[in-house]
Amino acid sequence: MKTSLRYTILWCNSMQLLGEAFVLSPPSFSSPLSSVRDIWRLAAHPSEFNSKYDKNESLPTEVDIVVIGSGVAGLSCASLLSHCSSSLNDVLVLESHDTVGGAAHGWSRRGFHFESGPSLYSGFSMERSSNPLKNIFQVVGNEPDWITYDRWGTVLPNGKKFAAKIGPEGLKGVMEEHGGPGANEEFSALMKRMEPLGNAAQALTSMALREDAGALATLGLRYPKELLQTLAQGQTLNEPFLNIMEEMSLQNKFVINWLDMLCFLLQGLPAAGTMNAVIAYMLADWYRPGVTLDFPRGGSGAIVAGLARAVEEKGGGRVVTNAHVQHILVKDNRACGVELKDGTVIH
């Protein structure tokens, strides 16, 4: 007989994309494809996954795991649990809305495809990647096809438009053409200062992180060199980037504005209010030789659909929409079940 919700209830209805997935308007200049229009043409066939919850259809009354919310965080959690644990027979994802994906989904109306949430991805089209979501797909499968490009359209306050190419040479060109005297030298010095922080930020895969004693095995035994590299920069990684801006005496307005733009793409904050770890990871990833940006064929919905399929493909998992969790049931200070808006109780 199954025990009642043997493990835990996982609340995952917040937007939490794993790895680098940033909000940005679609690029508007040429790319490695014949045109950036090709990117959006190829991406305009959404992969949809909607498991409608019919109130007349009975849901299970007992399961091993309940995940609340089908955003990328919830589906990542559920797909790993469903894929990796032979002892878990039932993983149930409950989504309040009629579409899975949370803030990361797409939809079509009258022949037009719309994107919600992130639209700028990197670290997916390469096999050896520090992007945690890429690592999850490498475990559970069902990864989307990735379309690659290497620049985005940029508009300056004076209305001038140009194609901002990523990678070291692209950055040098932007600074020399638009930054004015000293911009390239100032940014180059900053990149050199951030290099050890970038290496530390990317040294450990987040798949090895855990909160119990098993961390000694997944970190200390398997990644001893990387662990020491990260610990050496640990305090600095958690400090605000403002400290490094002051240390480097950044003065060039274009450089500062460029950093503010990048940080806004990352998390909606100016550079001074962003953690060093975030900026270090981004600079190391976007300005390395041969870098490309990625976009999933089928749009953001293809990422969600792949994760949802991974939850269900082993037979024990299920993703249910239109299933609003009204209450989390607690007994002896532990979650023991959920009650849906329609009164359905699942333990």
From TrEMBL:
GO terms for biological process: carotenoid metabolic process. InterPro entries: Amino_oxidase, CrtISO-like, FAD/NAD-bd_sf. GO terms for molecular function: oxidoreductase activity. Residues 72-346 form the Amine oxidase domain. PANTHER family: PROLYCOPENE ISOMERASE, CHLOROPLASTIC (PTHR46313:SF3), PTHR46313. It comes from the Eukaryota. Pfam families: Amino_oxidase. This is Amine oxidase domain-containing protein.
